[in-house]
Design a protein that fits this description.
By secondary structure, the protein is α/β, with parallel strands linked by helices. The protein contains eight helices and ten strands. Helix content is 39%, strand content 14%. Helix 2 runs parallel beside helix 4 and helix 4 runs parallel beside helix 5.
């Protein structure tokens, strides 16, 4: 497994990391201790800012294909972790209004449940299988966020297979589509975890922070929250441009 990941990482060495934004939930909210929720009006403003500045939000699959073809200029990856039901209700219509697409990373073993891993936060409903089918049919890319939202570096090898392989198989069955991308819960990733995800056959994977395992199977992302208006969005985009090279 290590040999495969090393080859993929070397082949991309020297190119800037793609600009990928990390969202979770888009909903009206009052209590948000984990800072994972963006108001729908703010989200609409953020998408408008991208378009006004010559940028277009796209799914990770579209972004990675464009990079391979040398046609990724002006494209920004939009990712949504956890698969909240408000993705179907609030995110998809906004994406369609602004001519954007996105990737939603779904927790395959908690479909129709809630965010029980966030004990201090308000309960947020996760998409049902039917809602996942609807967003996939509407053009969203569905990726895997694992089986049970676990810290993957804590797991043994068999559990890693369940989180990567079994979760993908469940989502394939629901969507009838290929599942090309993986996202590490909590951003918890090390070399063993990267190797397991690459060996499972994923084309790419998303982390959070830049690290010594960053590459096609541990892509760093930029957190976006409810406080991110035009000035902060501009600053984050500039920071990425200045620091994105390996």
């Amino acid at each position: 497994m290590t040999q495969t990941v090393s080859k993929l990482t070397r082949s991309d060495t020297g190119r800037p990391f793609p600009y990928v934004l990390m969202y979770h939930s888009v909903a009206v909210h009052q209590h948000d201790p984990y800072l994972v929720t963006v108001d729908p009006r703010r989200f609409d403003q953020q998408l408008r800012w991208l378009r006004d500045n010559g940028l277009r939000g796209v799914s990770m699959g579209e972004l990675m294909r464009a990079r391979r073809a040398g046609e990724a200029r002006g494209l920004v990856g939009l990712t949504f972790d956890d698969g909240y039901a408000d993705f179907a209700r609030n995110v998809v219509p906004a994406l369609q209004r602004h001519g954007c697409t996105a990737t939603v990373f779904v927790i395959a073993g908690r479909i129709g449940g809630d965010n029980e891993w966030d004990p201090a936060g308000p309960r947020k409903r996760l998409m049902t299988a039917e809602e996942i089918q609807e967003v996939a049919a509407a053009g969203a890319e569905v990726g895997s966020h694992g089986l049970l939202h676990q810290h993957m570096s804590y797991l043994d090898d068999d559990e890693l297979v369940a989180e990567s392989v079994a979760s993908r198989d469940l989502l394939r069955e629901i969507t009838g589509q290929e599942v090309a991308g993986f996202c590490y819960p909590y951003g918890d990733v090390d070399r063993r975890v990267v190797d397991a995800v690459a060996a499972a056959g994923y084309e790419y994977a998303c982390a959070i922070w830049r690290s010594d395992v960053s590459g096609p199977h541990a892509l760093p992302r930029t957190y976006i929250g409810d406080r991110d208006g035009a000035l902060r969005l501009r600053a984050k985009h500039l920071r990425h441009r200045l620091t994105s090279r390996r």
